[in-house]
Every structure is written in structure tokens, then in C-alpha cells.
Amino acid sequence: MKLQFNKTYLVLALLLFATEACIATFLKTGFIRHTFGDYLVVILMYCFLKSFIKGYHFKIAMSVLAFSYAIEVLQLVNILKPLNLENSHVAKLILGSTFHISDLVAYTLGIVSVLIVEMRLSKILNV
């Protein structure tokens, strides 16, 4: 793994973070809040990691997907209760509080989108 700063990915990550913050702040229900936000969050995590790690598109994408799935499984087992965080708004916002299969689908589609874009960019840029 080669560490190298990439300003483009960091800017993308910051823009996605701002978008996610707006979604969390202004939308309380609906497709954008519950599904599109999950789609975007894996892209955000990927871009953040790519801000500091050069190459390894597939490995980073799969790591983000595995992490996202793990968080969703923790929701299935209601991890907030044993951690005594079920009343914490911040914990619910970061970890989520309910398991949904649709979240796994959104995460998967987000990572598939990332891999398609990376594949096309690598062909265009001959990387």
C-alpha cells in the first residue's frame, strides 16, 4: 500500500460529506434520506480513503463494502443497546439503528458505481 495525498479525492469526499450532512439535517423521511444517503456514504468513504492511498481501487472498494455490511449486521443485532447508546442521537446517526436489506443493496450499488467509474477513468487516462 502506497500512501500518497490526492486532492481530487479529498474534494470529492468533502462534497459528499456536505451532501450527506444536508440530507441528515433537512430530510427526515423518504428515498433520499433512507436509500440514496446509504448509496452516497460508501462513495464518500471510498473517496476519503483514496485521498490518502494510491491505487488499489478494488481492494479499497471491497474493504468499504465489507465495513458497511459489518455496520449493518451490528444494526441487526442492535449493538446500540449493549453499548448503552440507544438514546444517543449521534450514535444513531453514525451507526444507524435499524437493519434493512435495502441498505445492503444501496451499499453494493454505490461500490459498483465506484468501480465502474474507476474502470472507465483508468481506460481514459491509460493508468
Say how many strands there are: 2
> What is the beta-strand fraction?
under 5%
Using the alpha-carbon principal axes, give the shape: globular
Could you state the order of secondary-structure elements as H and E? EHHEHHH
Domain module count: 1
What structural category arises from helix and sheet content? mainly alpha
Could you give the order of strands across the largest sheet? 1-2
State the distance separating the first and last CA atoms: 17 Å
Helix content: over 70%
Rg over C-alpha atoms, rounded to the nearest angstrom: 16 Å
Mean pLDDT: 93
Low-confidence runs of at least 5 consecutive residues: none
What brief labels describe this structure?
127 residues, mainly alpha, two-stranded antiparallel sheet, 72% helix, globular
Q: How would you portray this structure in words?
A:
Helix content is 72%, strand content 3%. It is mainly alpha-helical and 127 residues long. It has one domain (2-125). It has a two-stranded antiparallel sheet with strand order 1-2. Helix 2 crosses helix 3, helix 2 (31-50) crosses helix 5 (101-125) and helix 3 (57-76) packs antiparallel against helix 5. Keywords: Membrane, Transmembrane, Transmembrane helix. This is DUF2809 domain-containing protein. The chain crosses the membrane at residues 31-49, 56-77, 97-117. It comes from Mariniflexile gromovii.
